[in-house]
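Hi F.,

I've been meaning to write this up properly since the lab meeting, where we talked about keeping a consistent format for the predictions we share between groups. The idea is simple: the sequence comes first, exactly as it goes in, then the structure tokens exactly as they come out, then a line or two of notes. No screenshots and no reformatting. I'm using this chain as the first example so we have something concrete to point to.
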Amino acid sequence: MSEEPLLRETSEGVLTLTLNRPDKLNAFTPDMHRALHVALGDAAEDAAIRAVLLTGAGRGFCAGQDLGDRNPDAADGPPDLGETIETFYNPLIRAIRSLAKPVVCAVNGVAAGAGANIALACDIVLAAEGAKFVQSFSKLGLVPDSGGTWMLARLIGEARAKALFLTAEPITASQAAEWGLIWRAVPDAELMVEARQLAEKLAAGPTFGLGLIKQAVHASADQSLDASLDLERDLQRRAGRSADYAEGVRAFLQRRKPTYSGVE
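Output, unedited:
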């Protein structure tokens, strides 16, 4: 296995990003953060990349922050975890959410702490049936971060969110899917096949419009119905002027498969 903290592969318009510290359950280090930040920036700028697939190497997706360098007995004083969040985790969540292209996450094993919330920040989450999600922050006396308190309360409601946060009890992929926390749980052996097929399908689609859908859904969490109606109008105006819309209509009328470009 390569010593690079992040593996990158591009095929069929999909940029596959694999967290690559399998001996540490892909726990985050500054180097991994930097590599992922660069990769997402490249995805945003490269028109040939139409979708992103995020997964982990080995038997886990991501165990959150690597605590190896956080030994309080070896430090001069208490750490500034707020600085860590501001420097690394918050920019990562914002980059995933703001990317105007679909982001699929394939959770291949345990997703704990920030690792769970990074997965949940993606647009469509598939998880192996053997995977588990753990909001492990309370075990260390910490507050959920990486958007966890925002996302879980909206996805599964306050009662379930608080219970997961306060007890740090793991839930299975099947339970996560049943609760609406993720899109689907699939057999372990089929995870990457299904995730790649999904990412490639999205990449071949009208990705300009898909990016606008992301924008509208994300905005809806914090605005009124009237504001959402106005935003839908404005985004639909842009979508209707796009090359993808014109191609979609032509293909429908000509009874053929459309070939989308993903451009406005």
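Notes:
The chain has a mean pLDDT of 96.
Residues 207-254 form a domain with the Lyase 2-enoyl-coa Hydratase; Chain  A, domain 2 fold (CATH 1.10.12).

If this format works for you, I'll send the rest the same way.

G.
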